[in-house]
Write a structure and sequence with these properties.
The structure is a single chain. This protein has 184 residues and is an alpha+beta fold. Strand 2 and strand 3 form a beta hairpin. It is globular. It has two domains: 122 residues, Arc Repressor Mutant, subunit A (Orthogonal Bundle), CATH 1.10.10.2910; 51 residues, no CATH class. A four-stranded mixed beta sheet has the order 1-3-2-4. The structure holds zinc ion (ZN). Zinc ion (ZN) binds next to helix 3 and helix 5. Zinc ion binds next to helix 3 and helix 5.
Length: 184
């Protein structure tokens, strides 16, 4: 199965529209409520970023590792919401970042279509393409001298995501090229 990226993006955009989101940062808790998802913050073992339990009648419970940074927690919640919306047939799903030593485990996770769809959903939900493009334009208009690195820092803080997540997003939206990728 190939990842259904456009479906993932569309579902994220629908949720943003439903929540009336027109500004950063995206109010993630409110959007989770709209999906009837309860968020539980718990100090999981360091390898677990999050998990989701989908109820058969819709909605569910999202667990997020409270030991991780706030920006990582936001990405995890958005990723689990993606599973809840796109993969509700799977009753329970756990996301675990495996030790780097176990290379094959890591690469199979990175190429799992469901993981790629949940990541695409999370990227669009937290950093909606249209909003990000408008923010970049406004930043450049405000200060044409702004460096790429400064712009990424500012955007990451406005959207409450990590600079790495914002760098990936700007690259995949082709707003910066990988040559500009000074932060990474
Ligand atoms: Zn996942």
């Amino acid at each position: 199965m190939r990842p259904r990226y456009s479906l993932a993006r569309r579902r994220a955009q629908q949720l943003l529209a439903e929540g009336g989101v027109t500004d950063a940062p995206v109010p993630l808790e409110r959007l989770a409520e709209l999906c009837r998802a309860t968020i539980r913050y718990e100090p999981f073992d360091g390898e677990v970023s999050g998990m989701v339990h989908c109820r058969p009648d819709g909605g569910g419970v999202i667990g997020v590792n409270s030991e991780h940074s706030k920006t990582r927690q936001r990405f995890t919640i958005a990723h689990e919401l993606g599973h809840l919306i796109l993969h509700a047939d799977e009753e329970f799903h756990i996301d675990e970042k495996r030790p780097l030593a176990r290379r094959d485990a890591v690469s199979s996770q990175a190429t799992d279509p469901r993981e790629m769809e949940a990541n695409q959903f999370a990227a669009e939900l937290l950093m909606p393409a249209a909003l990000v493009r408008a923010s970049v334009e406004a930043l450049v208009e405000d200060d044409p001298e702004l460096t790429v690195e400064e712009a990424i820092d500012e955007l990451a803080s406005d959207y409450r995501v990590s600079t790495l997540a914002m760098t990936h997003r700007l690259t995949s939206l082709k707003i910066i090229s990988s040559d500009d990728d000074v932060a990474g």
